[in-house]
Specification:
It is built from 3 helices and 8 strands, in the order βαβαββαββββ. The chain has about 180 residues and is α/β, with parallel strands linked by helices. It is globular and about 45 Å long. It binds guanosine-5'-monophosphate and magnesium ion. The site of guanosine-5'-monophosphate (5GP) has 15 residues, from strand 4, helix 3 and strand 7.
């Protein structure tokens, strides 16, 4: 196993700050915009972006979590029992601008499922996709991110290891594992 560091904690922190500035550039004071983190692993990134965004705008921004397990096109094909995570969207997304947040974008199937799952919560005016790591050239579907932390050229057999730690952002790291 070969493990290569692609983002250390300092660069990761800078990247989160930059993504928040890009979001503000497009969404201003976030009056009609909400954040939705994708379960299970997109929520750590969503939490970090949300915290920074609220600091920056000095206001409270709606944040929800979406689980897409039962909307996946492959969920009946699994051998192991399915474990779903909590969906928690304590606001209406009707007519809102939604920023979908996930840690890694690979084939695009999770994002496709998320678009389906969201319909239960209303009809958004606009949906954008933010991913921390965009694994290039691996998509099965025509889905592309609007905001990217870092683009990484990966083989399908490789894996991006995202280590979000409990101690806040100080020890977060991202690796490419071959
Ligand atoms: P997709 O559905 O686009 O194939 O895969 C995206 C989902 O699977 C994301 O929710 C992400 O958390 C997870 N994922 C896919 N590839 C990787 C990877 O290399 N590393 C990590 N940590 N998660 C991945
Ligand atoms: Mg995805």
């Amino acid at each position: 196993m070969d493990k290569r560091l692609i983002l250390d904690s300092e660069l990761l922190r800078i990247t989160i700050f930059r993504l928040v500035e890009e979001l503000i550039e497009n969404h201003g004071d976030f009056t009609d915009t909400v954040l939705i983190g994708m379960q299970p692993r997109g929520i750590y990134l969503a939490d970090r972006l949300h915290k920074r965004l609220e600091e920056r705008l000095e206001s409270s921004i709606p944040l929800g979590y979406l689980d897409v397990t039962f909307y996946r096109d492959d969920f009946r094909r699994r051998d192991s029992p399915i474990e779903a995570n909590a969906t928690d969207i304590p606001f209406l997304i009707e007519d809102k601008k939604v920023i979908l947040i996930d840690d890694v974008l690979f084939t695009g199937r999770t994002t496709r499922a998320a678009l389906d799952a969201m319909i239960a919560f209303g009809r958004p005016r606009l949906v954008e996709l933010l991913t921390f790591i965009d694994r290039k050239y691996t998509r099965d579907l025509p889905i592309q991110p609007d905001y990217v932390g870092k683009r990484v050229n990966t083989l399908k057999t490789q894996r991006v290891l995202v280590e979000w730690t409990d101690q806040g952002a100080e020890n977060d790291q991202i690796w490419l594992v071959t």
